[in-house]
Amino acid sequence: MNDLTPTREQRTAALEGMGCKRKRVEDIRFTQGKGNYVDDVKLPGMLHGDFVRSPHPHARVKKIDDSEALKVPGVLAVITAETLKTVNLAWMPTLAGDVQMVLADGKVLFQNQEVAFVVATDRYAADDGINAVIVEYEPLAPLVDPFKAMDANAPVLREDLVGKMSGAHGPRKHDNHIFEWTVGDKELTDAAFNKAEVKIKEMISYHRTHPSPLETCQCVCSFDKIKGELTIYGTFQAPHVIRTVVALIAKLPEHKIHVIAPDIGGGFGNKVGAYPGYICAAVASIVTGKPVKWVEDRIENLTATSFARDYHMTTEIAATKEGKVTGLRVHVLADHGAFDACADPSKWPAGFFNIVTGSYDFPTAHLAVDGVYTNKAPGGVAYRCSFRVTEAAYCIERAMDILAQKLNMDPAELRLKNFIKPEQFPYHSALGWEYDSGDYHTAMRKMMETTGYAALRKEQAEKRAAFARGETREIMGLGVSFFTEIVGAGPSKNCDILGIAMFDSCEIRMHPTGAGIARMGTKSQGQGHETTWAQIIATEIGIPADNIMVEEGNTDTAPYGLGTYGSRSTPVAGAAIAMAARKIKAKAQMIAAYKLEVHEDDLEFDIDGFRVKGLPERFMSMKDICWAAYNSVPPGMEPGLEAVSYYDPPNMTYPFGAYLCVMDIDVDTGVYKVRRFYALDDCGTRINPMIIEGQVHGGLTEAFAIAMGQEIRYDDVGNVVTGSFMDFFMPTAVETPHWETDFTVTPSPHHPIGAKGVGESPNVGGVPAFSNAVNDAFSFLGSTHIQMPHDFWRNWKAAKDLGAVA
Amino acid sequence: MIPGSFSYHRPASVADAVKLLADLGEDARPLAGGHSLVPMMKLRLATPAHLIDLHGIAALKGIRRDGQNLVIGAMTTQHELLASDDVAKAMPILHEAALLIADPQVRYRGTIGGNVANGDPGNDMPALMMTLGASYRLESAGGARDVAAADFYQGAYFTALEPGEILTSVSVPVPAAGHGSAYEKLKRKVGDYATAAAAVVLTMSGGKVATCSIGLTNVHETPLLATDAANAVIGTSLDAATLKRAAAAAEAIMAPAADARGPVEYRKHVGGIMVTRALQRAAAVAK
Lengths: 806, 287
Ligand SMILES: Cc1cc2nc3c(=O)[nH]c(=O)nc-3n(C[C@H](O)[C@H](O)[C@H](O)COP(=O)(O)OP(=O)(O)OC[C@H]3O[C@@H](n4cnc5c(N)ncnc54)[C@H](O)[C@@H]3O)c2cc1C
Hints:
heterodimer; A: alpha+beta; Aldehyde Oxidoreductase, domain 4; Aldehyde Oxidoreductase, domain 3; 3 domains; six-stranded mixed beta sheet; 18 helices; B: alpha+beta; Uridine Diphospho-n-acetylenolpyruvylglucosamine Reductase, domain 2; Uridine Diphospho-n-acetylenolpyruvylglucosamine Reductase, domain 3; Enolase-like, domain 1; five-stranded antiparallel beta sheet; four-stranded antiparallel beta sheet; 14 strands; binds flavin-adenine dinucleotide
């Protein structure tokens, strides 16, 4: 050893492994405008397709006349449901066990539904063609209000299902009913309510909104007639699932389908499902023999491809006078729109909404969810959350505040009193989950201490007194939120998509010079996988992250995986990566033992190589082992250094966090100011703190948007009125509050590296924090619950309804 | 979101532009910054067969002092208004209001001529021009005429601009030295049009309002001059009762549409508040 020998710290730092704030490698191309997105794909002879859409929310399609459209220069074909019927593709299966029209078949069921697909030599001609297609409609009564869906005289929407009184998830009670899903012990819960000292009941709505990624949904389909092969470039969060779905519905051999998801400009759940655009572009390519591109515009994205939420949750809590919860009862009315196109694991019609007991030790609970059809766009995707987990977190976090108000207790104190205790983990919830690990009290207390919670409450009391005296027109609210997520779908025992277990995968190939490539079944849409996946491998096998190239999104080269959504990448693929790396490491150890002429058991792994125990100078670096793997492996061993792992997780992971929002509201205009927002996240082992912070910033910004104004709204007759970023609230940097982030670390006991996932926590925990702040601000004027979104005029209306504004 | 086809013309002089307009008739539309027209074309709500781009006409650019007026060429961008010392010194309210239009990208392209000629009640400049007593120069193949901003707006997207005419400049009387002004605009976010906005220009004398003019944006199908409200504050020291009367007088002439910014009642209510706040702030800066 001499001065030039790197220290252990230097060797660890050189790897840029787990825990390092490694800069995002993908940003080099993104910040220079050198990303390669679907709309950058330009193939020779490529055609463009675009949709004729319905202006009516509910109508019979009497006639489609394409004769004028076909005269428009550049227009080559107009595809309708009749065309698709010839290839048996007028309808397609949804991930939720329903079927969905690809193009209007006899009827339209929501405004902007796809009616015909015009194929032309360029986008301008396609649009001219759209304007020349004449569709004759007979308008029908629209069904907009989900609460009226099961009325005796409600218009029947799905004529294809008439008389089928059983659906993919059991019996149907009405022609507009999709499913009823119940969980928990009803008798025990009813009993808890019968003897409860204190009860609350509130209908808590989580309005319809939209994931609205900046890049809309799009694809290029190219069918090679000679080889009989279909190549699809698309904005897919789950490329392998798309390949299998295409194989099943288009009846093409799966090995002749190549799905490529290039760089993706945000997904947030919007890009999980299959859309009519993909089917039509594929059919158009098969028909014309040319590549066909389909690119949604903003209006189409907001109004036709998957919305999120639209849950109406009647929530009851039973408790003792002292504030100990004794029972939870929730009934959800779920508005699914015209088709049930929820992107949930197949057996879960309401996703994992049964995480609704949250972070609290409810001895008993009962949940019932009714899904209904309305004349709205289909969807119900997990917008930056695990399946229906945001809805559940909002429901319980709002309800706990309402209970605190009824008991005249501080909402933070009520939560501390009811948290699952650290010694109760693994914890079995009343609605059937096994929480892996948590230390809720520590996280909550850290939040309260860091923010000066007690002092803020004191300030609020003073401001309320000043408001009562007429000295100020501003009211102050503190929004507490303590969420527990359930992510990492999931174990094959309870999760599949169309029968495929929700494992994930990783393949690592180390090259002779100590560099390598790793491929996964996941697909980054901005999460930074190319950076973090390499960091896991770096720490596991001692090769610098910079020497590992991460590749995702090509189904021909990547191992089969279920894709990226529901915060599943780190819990599932992250585990597969560690397991594949450990296989590499195990083989490396055998090679090192052979080269160092010792027994394997005499070696220990030391940062970036193997060392003979007790003889520190006898060391072989991983880089040298890579070389040896290609020329001098032990006799009988196959050369090379590669590994594949398919990981079926034993359990979900349960990230949690404590958030606080401090808000001031001017009652005269309803204008609010987020004075402070503090977010403490516990996502277990932290792979890259900088990326975690970025994920938290992004998720909080979405949560802010959703709670404070972002909605997909329909008027009384079914027109969607929020079809652009002028009215669909997309905050800019100016509106976005300053975020304070913090953390505790409670590793997952069952995950190979203890990581739980963080990408969605801030959306899940953020929405209740904002909404609770608004509700807390108004509570002293006598309200128990004000529905989201809390935009300016609704805040003013709340103040007015409560008598605070003349 | 793809416009229909159109032909593109780029004249080098006002004379050429108005000749093109005269020759091509009603299917031709002048194109300035394109930040109102092009979005409408993309939705095919506007389908002009000919676009006459005014960017090639040097004479339509620039800000100059002409006696008691600032004369602003129609093709002067909102960004150029913000960069002008003359504007900032002589009429700070114009600087203030321009800064509340959309975002920097829009302001680099959007022009004052396009903003006032557009006729959208959501545009901020029209009510402000009425408040300042500005007039517009309109030129056609037949000659030129001046129309007061207060007489220009007839309905949503319906103005005194005749077919064949181009708005070439805006002439704004410089307010008296020591005047106070304020533009109060409530919007949901950067890039949004006003839920309601109020422009106030006033002078004070001995602690009392001597002269006052109030304009209102986006609370009616046209921009409004709130004359009764302005008269109500003259001679007062803007005490609470007077402010209330002025807000009520302003609200009385508002007739906004209900939209995602809020119901009619809310938009009128905050319109009154914008008037109150603009009066208070203008008085505070007046000397
Ligand atoms: C996201 C966004 C937000 C916006 N927010 C605001 C806002 O808050 N407040 C606001 O005031 N504006 C706003 N605008 C509009 C913007 O200020 C426009 O630039 C302006 O309304 C029109 O100016 P323009 O130069 O772009 O005109 P264009 O779009 O080119 O033209 C507008 C109309 O005026 C006509 N026209 C243009 N110039 C002349 C002329 N010299 N003579 C005769 N007719 C002419 C055109 O034919 C057309 O009908 C916003 C725009 C966008 C895209």
